[in-house]
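Technical note accompanying the year-one report. For the benefit of new consortium partners, we illustrate the data format agreed upon in the data management plan: each record pairs a sequence with a structure-token string. No post-processing was applied to the example shown here.
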Amino acid sequence: MKKNFLGTIFLLSVTILFSQNPNLYLQTSEINDLMVNYDADKGSIRRFYSAGNGSGFAFAASNYNLPERRWRLQELIQDYQSRLSKIDFDKMSIHGKADYILFNQHLENEKHDILQEEQTFSKIKKYFPFIEKISTIQKPRIRGMSVNGEEVAKQLEDLNKDIITAIKRIKKTDTEDKELTDYAQATTGAYRDVLKDYFNFYNDYDPLFSWWVPKSYTATDSLLKIYGNTLKAMGVEKSPQKDDGSGIIGHPVGRDELIRLLRAEFIPYNPEELIDIANKEFAWCDTEMLKASRELGFGDDWKSALEKVKNSYVPEGKQPEAMYDLYKQSVDFLKKNDLVTIPPIAEETWRMIMMTPERQRVNPFFTGGEVLSISYPASTMTYEEKMMSMRGNNPYFSRSTVHHELIAGHHLQMFMNNRNKTYRNFDTPFWIEGNALYWELLLWDMKFPRNASDRVGMLFWRMHRCARIIFSLKYHLGNWTPQQCIDFLVDRVGHERANAEGEVRRSFATSYKPLYQLAYMMGGLQFMALKRELVDTKKMTLKQYHDAILKENSMPIEILRAILTNQKLSRDFSTNWRFYKG
């Protein structure tokens, strides 16, 4: 009786508290606890099953997944999927249902990546017949058990013989796919870290270990380094697309993988449909570009109009203040039209740096977030490089991208993501880049460009985003080579050639994922479609819509739509929103 009474009092207290502060639960959902615990558990496993635990109290996990870690992470994912399956989905709020769907998809994505890595490891496992010996040596270190220094030295000497034999054997081996030999070298490095961590734990603390082991360990470390380099030297590029003269070699993923990735991002279109959409948007850009070209006196010769705009570049040393002036113009426009809430600290705390010449090779244009990285020539660049950098970052081009990179784009996004529903860590370029691109589309419609030169600058970027969809998909479908992608950007969009090369290199020869480049325009079109559904029908004001987006944090936009429209969701929800009506 007493227990029931206390429970009633507790529930009454919570009800009163909530009625006094209705915003108390804006930061959570029924799945929040599960998601937070998963991230913490995953972090614990990654740090424990790490190639090198480091030293001191700040143990940092290496990025390499040892076999033990892969197995343990798969087990963890299975455990959390089991927990999810036991939740009564229908009794949850829309926020809980959305988080359920997103978290389950997140677990599926992580499981897929681990299984893919397991398949890659199975292809190189033959090069590591001595892995079990390293694991046997290392095991006592995990819980600090005493070891016999003489026995350890003998184990290492036996290991050294195995490594020497392996080096001799692979020198007689045929070439191997470079992607696999790079991974094999990383594997060798991981096991060097394992032994380094083991050695540092005992050496100087265990007198007999310190007397017996150092010489043998030094030899082991040296041999593993040689082995890794020897493995890497075996590698030859076996990508379906060879070097076509551009020097850019990536790995086209193919149509099936593109479709899998699109479904994981809740995009119901196939690659061919997305290319069709890009071409339709491109046709609109062409029409508008010709209008601006005629207004500038160049008739239908839009490339000459583009040349005039490019040659409006900022004089030496004046780029940072020119970018700041553009920033003020865009923020003043946002405030004048009351388009979004801008917290004062967000305005106060963004800052600038100058982009290095090395980084400009793969990222020719400035980037943003809390730090605006300004792309402009340095003294070490050649005359041609300097001109391409200045022309490609002229004020008319930059007018379209300052608000993309700062406010209300990436800086405001990151600022708000750090303060709203932080447990939602579903980073997706369709939200991150799509929302920033949405502002370019919206501000165009709201007459932010002041004249024909402004319109040419903004249209250049809009054409560029259409082109990204086409060239990235055609590359990954195996239809185009990197050089064809470069030529397309130069001929169809009007890029400086060096900037086009940097754009293609960034797309295919770095860590960017296959859908990243198409996510700008597709995400922007999704946000525009959702605006038509919520704002144009007077269900929300523009400011309410924009604030709501930022308060839900990053996620696939179809799920954001479900939240904002209070859509009925099912446990087995799959993508179905055909958002493009152009």
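Partners are asked to follow this layout when depositing records. Residues 54-58 have pLDDT under 50 and may be disordered.
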